[in-house]
Structures are given as C-alpha cells and as structure tokens.
Design goal:
Number of helices: 3
Helix content: 55-70%
Order of helices and strands: HHEEHEE
Structural class: alpha+beta
Largest sheet: 4 strands, antiparallel
Strand content: 15-25%
Distance between the termini: 82 Å
Strand order of the largest sheet: 1-2-4-3
Number of domains: 2
C-alpha cells in the first residue's frame, strides 16, 4: 500500500508540473509558428520575379549581335563579338553595362543589369 501511495504522489506531482508548464509550452509553439510564417513570407517577397523585367530582357537579348547571355533576376553576363555591338547595347535605355572584359575567344563579356 505504501508503494502505491508513493507512486500516486509521484504521478500527481508529475501532472501538476505538466499543468504549470503547459501555458509556456503553448506560448513557445505559437511564437515559433508566427516566426516561421514571417520567414516564409519574407522569402517569397525576395524571390518574386517581375514579368515586365523578363519581357525587357527577352526583347533586348533576341538580337543577332548577341552571341550568348547568362541572365539572373537582377543581372548577368552578355557576350558580343565587337565594339559596335557594345555601343548599340550601351545606347539602349533598358540595359546598364557594369563591366567589360575581352575573353580568350576575342569576344567581349559584359556585366549587365536592368536600369532600375
């Protein structure tokens, strides 16, 4: 009988501790849920692609003088054959040229982005 009473006391003590800790656990879970929602929303906003930007890239890169293009959301690289092609791109009101390098194939690699 004595051991049963001790076991019951331990179980009751355990239940009391759990009941005391329950509000804190629920609060922590709700805070974690809210912070994960905020993180997901901020990640979605960073990754948004503007379709008008895609349209501008396509219109300006589908030309005969552009040999190769590697474009990301914010900018990229364009490879052209000669300086006259660079002049034509630099006069374009949509594309900004950041840097220019002559590669091994005697072609010009341009670092570009859209004017914001």
């Amino acid at each position: 009988m004595n051991t049963i009473r001790k076991e019951n006391k331990v179980i009751i003590l355990f239940l009391i501790i759990n009941l005391i800790a329950f509000p804190f656990v629920v609060q922590n879970i709700s805070e974690t849920k809210e912070s994960s929602k905020l993180n997901r929303n901020s990640n979605l906003e960073e990754g948004k692609i503007k379709f008008e930007d895609i349209s501008i890239w396509v219109k300006n890169l589908m030309k005969d003088n552009i040999e190769e293009a590697h474009i990301t959301n914010n900018g990229g690289d364009i490879i052209v054959n000669n300086l006259s092609d660079i002049d034509e791109l630099s006069s374009n009101g949509f594309i900004e040229i950041h840097d220019m390098n002559l590669n091994d194939n005697e072609k010009y690699k341009l670092g570009v982005s859209l004017y914001e």
